[in-house]
Amino acid sequence: MFKTLEWTQHGVVMIDQRKLPTEEVYPLFKTYQEVAQAIRDMVVRGAPAIGVAAAMGVALGAKQIQADSIQEFERKFAEICDVLASTRPTAVNLFWAIERMKGVCRQLLPKADLQTFKEALESEAVRMHEEDIALNRQLGRFGADLLGERVLTHCNAGALATAGYGTALGVIRAAVERGKKIQVFADETRPFLQGARLTAWELQKDNIPVTLITDNMAGYFMQQGKIDCVVVGADRIAANGDVANKIGTYSVAVLAKENSIPFYVAAPISTLDLGLPSGDQIPIEQRPSREVTHIQQSAIAPEGVRVANPAFDVTPNRYVAAIITERGVARAPYEQSLRDLSDRS
Predict the structure, then answer these.
(1) What is the pLDDT of residues 70-126, one digit of tens each?
(2) What is the end-to-end Cα distance of the chain in Å, rounded?
(3) Closest CA to 203 of 219, 182, 189
(4) Strands of the chain, DSSP E
(5) Which of 26, 152, 304, 310 has its CA 20 to 30 A from that of 321?
(6) 235, 242, 273, 313: which is the annotated catalytic residue?
(7) What does the DSSP 8-state code read for residue 159?
């Protein structure tokens, strides 16, 4: 099984998702700046994976700080956190992970020597990596019974989008492990083609049957009665259950509602942003126009054409049948059910 990312004593190793499915390469990122650039450039992507990568970036940066005083160390540490926090605006796991690393700083720095503190940050980042895999497996167990045999997914919410196993694909994997015969339909997910390049690649590696379709085919297959349910991941979930996920998710949710097909969201508790009352407040990242006008090096649009490229959209809670987390399954009214799951230890 491939590893999405890994902490080493020399730096952070990540599979370069931009090169999949044709090349499987694992570059080493030796500084926190390189980790930050890898997040920006989508070497690593997916909200949980971004969070773990950011934590490892913080630990790596702190490990390399040279400081003559606690005050100087704190200043440089804050700068590292700010650089990593500026990489992607929509995925709330990024900010959750950095805040967790800051918590280590607040707890230990006044009373621990710098070397002990650096080792504690490294341990915390590794722990977050291990916890993410474990909670994805637990999430999968909660969601497996919800799935029918023919499942549509959008974008990639698998092992590549997490520390391992996956959220939406984790639910699918868990269902297969229970003996269910699952046929996955994977939207290609324009413009970055995460479904075509990543989801199809992952599922083939696991020998899970997958059919790749273009984004505008989803409605056709639903109308033909060939989809039993939809399961997707999420980058941020507001207190009312509105869900930010890869652009095109909203369209899939509307089509599912029209065809009386349940639309499920699979995401860890760290993806909840209960401080936001609704999805209206979720910031939407705007990506470079070249992602739309080119596929790799080949132009597919006239030069100079005006381009809009929002990376995410928000699906209103009324289209969401359930939100699957590692602590259980939330259903409407989400203001209460998500709060209950968040408060549950």
Answers:
(1) 889 889 999 999 999 999 999 899 999 999 999 998 887 777 788 888 999 999 999
(2) 31
(3) 182
(4) 5-8, 11-14, 28-29, 150-153, 183-187, 210-213, 229-232, 236-238, 243-246, 263-266, 272-273, 294-295, 298-299, 312-315, 322-325, 328-330
(5) 310
(6) 235
(7) G
| Beta partners for residue 185, in sequence order | 152, 211
- Comparing CA positions, the residue from 51, 3, 7 lying closest to residue 30 is 7
**CB pairs under 8 A, 24+ apart, for 119-123?**
121/58, 121/59, 121/62, 121/63, 122/7, 122/59, 122/63
Structure tokens, 276? 């936001």
Residue 158: Cβ within 10 Å count: 30
The letter for the amino acid at 247 is: I
| Other Cβ atoms within 10 Å of 43 Cβ, number | 20
How do beta strands 236-238 and 272-273 pair?
parallel
Gap between the Cα atoms of 230 and 186, Å rounded:
10
Close Cβ partners of 291 (under 8 Å, ≥ 6 residues apart)? 191, 192, 309
Long-range CB contact pairs, 126-132, < 8 A, 24+: 126/7, 128/51, 128/52, 128/55, 128/97, 128/100, 128/163, 129/5, 129/6, 129/7, 129/52, 129/55, 129/56, 129/163, 130/163, 132/48, 132/51, 132/52, 132/162, 132/163, 132/164, 132/268
Structure tokens at 176: 């297969």
What domains does the chain contain, in order, with CATH numbers? 5-136 (1.20.120.420), 144-343 (3.40.50.10470)
Q: Which residues of 4-26 are buried (b: 16+ CB within 10 A; e: fewer)?
A: bbbbeeebbbbbbbbebeeeeee
List pLDDT tens digits, range 307-329: 999 999 999 999 999 999 999 99
Residue 235: active-site member: yes
Per-residue pLDDT reduced to its tens digit, 232-269: 999 999 999 999 999 999 999 999 999 999 999 999 99
Following DSSP, what letter does each residue of 164-180 receive, concatenated?
SSBSHHHHHHHHHHTT-
Question: Does pTM top 0.85 for this prediction?
Answer: yes
Distance of CA 267 to the CA centre of its chain: 8
Q: Which distant-in-sequence residues (6+ apart) come within 8 Å of 30 by Cβ?
A: 10, 11, 60
